[in-house]
Amino acid sequence: MQITSFPAQPSIGAVYLVGAGPGDAELLTLKAYRLIQQADVILYDYLVSEDIRALFPATSEAVYVGKKCGAHSMNQAQICEYISHHALQGKQVVRLKGGDPSVFARVAEEIAHLTELNIPFAIVPGITAASGCAAYSGIPLTHRDCAHGVRFVTAHFKHEDMQAQWTELAQGQDTIVFYMGSTRLHDIAAQLIEHGKAPSTPIAIIEQGTSAQQKTHIHTLAGIAALNEANNHYTLTGPALIIIGEVVNYRTIIDTALLQAPTQASIRKAQQRQYMSA
Fold it and tell me: What is the pLDDT of residues 213-272, one digit of tens each?
């Protein structure tokens, strides 16, 4: 009797939808770091910082699937197919997203795709950009005297979708945080003023948040609108987060040196001081 053998089918792997945080590699969660080190494949976004990418193990296949404004490496359907392709080969896949995967990161579409194919997955939260950028800029997102809530809004909107929301945003007291607002800054300021927000309302524009290159610019809505009317557009050099509300007036300048990772030299000095004081 002739026995026909068939090649073994690979078992299905697993997918981890992981938040990389706002940029500073030390803001990665322990779970995110562990999963990155164990990954067979890492599919990472545009907002995953260079410092975090430096932590990718050499044994992992790292694939850029970012969608920078006007320069998408692949569309969302292709990204979903790429994720499932590797998982169905039995690989452990980390889908690494900037910030938190559940905040403006299209995680719902990837979950739906994985669920349809019965691929096991888990979501690992990360520090969202609003929290990281506000903290590194010394801005509280809420304040008992002026802001009892926070609204997260994507700046990648269609005008017709936002018309009903502008009045609500402009006349509310909550802090407003616009994500991905680099190209919509002047429009945001003009719309809020038009719908009733005080022109004197302070606004913080935070570029490259939590990185060593972070820049925080403080203006008012009227100031931003005036620049636009004078055809003097505010130029941003990188990804930006926009915080609007009275909380910006409570900003305090923080010592960013306290947030830097200690070098071996500084560790030795600290150990010497501790030894001498003992």
Answer: 999 999 999 999 888 665 566 677 778 999 999 999 999 988 878 887 765 555 555 555
Q: Are residues 135 and 223 in the same domain?
A: yes
pLDDT tens string 189-201: 999 999 999 999 9
Are residues 214 and 195 part of one domain?
A: yes
Q: What is the pTM of this model?
A: 0.87
Residue 139 CA from chain centroid, whole number: 17
Active site annotation includes 215: no
- 174 is a domain residue: yes
In a domain, 2, yes or no: no
Marked catalytic residue, from 45, 97, 174, 197 = 45
